[in-house]
């Protein structure tokens, strides 16, 4: 029977071990397929702090994220660790592409287009722009609550004349339900002769979270009430 040299046996065993280790390292460097799990970020509120964590699965850690297409609203950015955060300064629907790259050798990457909706928590708009009818000022506003939480809302309309004297045109205290849209509130009031600027202020409070939202409308020009002969 042929005898095996001990040195040769040790060398063969070492070769087998190194080969197995190399295959294991190669498998570890490949990892599971890299996938982006995030489908849609939660909506953001205008001028409110926002934070959303992008998620991916598989690949070799650490992962690195970046925006590679489209645009984010001013005030938001994606960090390399995949956190979308900041304070959005503009409303609208923003489409952008994120790319995640793993640390494999070679590295793998995946991209996905996402859509972020930025809304005003409390939206106040003119539905009937103020006008003077004889000695009476008339207008209407619409309100929208886009947070999903009920608001304890106070609405005040003041007509301010050229010397700074304010006349109350309207006052409302109401509950504005979460995700309600286009609630219209009309105002009208008789005014003495003069030049007026109309200011409408809305203050919404969420008692449960001690959160307050504000919105304001101001007429673009002075409105004149003329003396009636």
SSE diagram, text form:
Blueprint: H1 6-30, E1 35-36, E2 44-45, E3 50-53, E4 56-57, E5 64-70, E6 76-78, E7 83-86, E8 92-101, E9 109-119, E10 122-133, E11 136-145, E12 151-161, E13 166-176, E14 183-190, E15 194-206, E16 211-218, E17 223-225
Parallel strand pairs: 2-9
Antiparallel strand pairs: 1-4, 3-7, 5-8, 6-7, 8-9, 10-11, 11-14, 12-13, 12-15, 15-16, 15-17
Give a written overview of the molecule.
This protein has 229 residues and is mainly β. It has 2 domains: 35-119, Immunoglobulin-like; 122-225, Immunoglobulins (Immunoglobulin-like, Sandwich). The protein contains 1 helix and 17 strands. The chain has one helix at 6-30; strands at 35-36, 44-45, 50-53, 56-57, 64-70, 76-78, 83-86, 92-101, 109-119, 122-133, 136-145, 151-161, 166-176, 183-190, 194-206, 211-218, 223-225. The strands form 5 sheets. Strands 12, 13, 15, 16 and 17 form a 5-stranded antiparallel β-sheet that branches. It has a 4-stranded mixed β-sheet with strand order 2-9-8-5, with no helix packed on it. The radius of gyration is 32 Å and the shape is elongated. The model is unreliable at 14-28 (pLDDT under 50).
């Amino acid at each position: 029977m042929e005898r095996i040299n001990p040195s040769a046996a040790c060398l063969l065993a070492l070769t087998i071990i190194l080969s197995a280790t190399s295959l294991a390292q190669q498998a570890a460097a490949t990892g599971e397929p890299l996938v982006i799990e995030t489908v849609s970020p939660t909506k953001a509120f205008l001028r409110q702090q926002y934070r959303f964590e992008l998620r991916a699965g598989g690949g070799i850690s650490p992962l690195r994220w970046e925006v590679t297409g489209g645009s984010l609203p001013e005030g938001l950015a994606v960090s390399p660790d995949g956190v979308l955060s900041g304070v959005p300064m503009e409303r609208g629907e923003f489409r952008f592409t994120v790319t995640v790259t793993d640390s494999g050798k070679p590295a793998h990457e995946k991209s996905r287009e996402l859509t972020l909706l930025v809304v005003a928590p409390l939206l106040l708009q003119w539905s009937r722009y103020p006008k003077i009818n004889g000695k009476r000022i008339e207008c209407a506003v619409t309100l929208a609550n886009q947070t999903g939480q009920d608001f304890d809302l106070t609405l005040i309309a003041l007509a301010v004349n050229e010397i700074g004297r304010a006349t109350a045109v309207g006052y409302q205290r109401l509950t504005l339900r979460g995700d309600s849209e286009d609630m219209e509130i009309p105002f009208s009031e008789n005014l003495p002769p003069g030049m007026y600027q109309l200011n409408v202020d809305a203050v919404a409070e969420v008692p449960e979270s001690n959160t307050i939202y504000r919105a304001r409308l101001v007429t673009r020009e002075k409105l004149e009430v003329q003396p009636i002969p």
